[in-house]
Design goal:
The protein is elongated and about 35 Å long. It has 3 helices and no strands. The termini are far apart. The chain has one domain. The relative contact order is 0.17. It is 75% helix and 0% strand. The longest helix has 21 residues. The protein is mostly helical.
Length: 63
């Protein structure tokens, strides 16, 4: 089993940076749900570190 562990501050910083990146990209694409994508990424990244965030990110890129 693979385990990825991030310390608290690094986890939150990575989640915030990813959420900001997704929000800005969604706004550039003129998506009405840019804020929801950013929140979804942040929550998934924090609750399921890395894997949850990557899942949301991949799903986002497919849209």
């Amino acid at each position: 089993m693979v385990s990825i562990e991030l310390s608290g501050p690094i986890l939150v910083a990575a989640a915030v940076l990813g959420a900001v990146w997704i929000y800005r990209d969604a706004k550039r694409r003129a998506m009405d749900t840019a804020d929801m994508w950013a929140v979804g990424f942040f929550v998934a990244f924090v609750l399921l570190p890395v894997l949850g965030g990557l899942a949301v990110f991949v799903f986002y890129l497919r849209n």
